[in-house]
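Exercise 7.
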Amino acid sequence: MIEDTERIFQAVENKIREHIRPEDLDLVLDNIGLPQRLYNLAFTDGSAIGVNDGQILISLKQGHRPTADYVRSLREELHQAFPDVLFYFQPADMVTQILNFGIPSQIDVEVQGQDRDENRALAKTLKQRVSALPGLVDVHIQQELDAPELRYDIDRNRAQELGLSISSVANDINVSLSSSEQVSPNFWTDPKAGIPYYLAVQTPQYRVSSVDDIKNTPISSHASVQAPVPNVLGNIASIARRPVQSVFNHSNVQPAYDVYGSVQNSDLGNAAVKIQAIVNDLQGKLKPGNRIAVRGQIESMNSAFKDLAIGLLFAALFVYLLMVVNFQSFLDPLAVLLALPGVGCGIVLMLFATERSLSVPSLMGAIMAMGVASANSILLVAFARERRQAGVEAAQAALEAGKTRLRPVLMTAAAMVVGMVPMAFGTAGNEQNAVLARAVIGGVLVGTATTLLIVPYLYSVFGRYEHVPVPQTNRGTSEA
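Solution. The predicted structure, written as tokens, is:
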């Protein structure tokens, strides 16, 4: 009952208040059970399916300790203090919620197909194997597979002897437990306000709080014309307890079982590789027409990485063709493009030094860093070409370009680095953007060194194979 759930939630809330420092804790809000009847369940995430479910929302004050530290410690403390309660943390920040595309977890491994029994057993096996992986936390099956149920089997012969029909028994039980609104909805309209209200009859919950109370539910027989013959449910039905699945989900019309999980102290890419290995192993055990789909941020990550890689390749190709048209040369633009791997090395070194993994924000930072490095390299190569057209040798032109363009290149790089330093610290509210700033800083630092050292050398090498027109002297002066 919801009262028991409320007591458990109060104990959990007290444990949370003991764990979080008072100067960091702002508000704790509990949402227990399902929303009100008139609330559209399409606007919920579907994680709460009954009175035994709920959410605890925790608001922290400004200047609090990192949220990830509290989540990590609470995950351990709550599991130890309440071993019979299932806990999992949903993403609280807007960025992660958007990346999840409505799924209340980072990882969603979905078993789809019409073979419910086999898929249910496979989902349990999948949950056990995924939860054993290092770095995976909050692994659980979203659908409740063992909800308690009381099944009443009606003795039809006995019911017929007492003048009862199956429909009348079902209606009486439905009215008693779920109100007459389920059987015959009725309304009463306030004549003053004009507001309609549901008018329902139902047995109070405290009168049906045990199995014996349900057995004593009155069942009316209409066999007698004079008056209904009273009877009770226990005289015509036998009871049995059994676990059942309380929620059924579908994906593309196919029944589905979702194994949810999150990542802690590990990167999503490493977890995706391990999960995919388990999926490949279990996929062969499914019957034809059934399959296992990996969704959530893993699907979004693979799609984003693929699109970004294709975008970077095409961007490099188009920039090269544009420089070919601008420089009227196929060799000079190579000096610019071959300096970009140095930017990638700087990004990887910075992410490794700060213990961060490659992600979509870091790839966005890589695009920014490569843009700055390309602009600086183009500035240097353009000046070197001017010196070459003036009759200077390639090596000397590259050296003069490095000296002349040193200050503009350093000023551009310094402005980008200084602008990204505050974001790179990852203070409260900037955790998601910190990896972007660090990728930019690492790429710009190494890219600037590459621009000033490698690009002049490459230009001096490529310049040997390039034909430069010899400057013509004034004909009139030479004849004189």
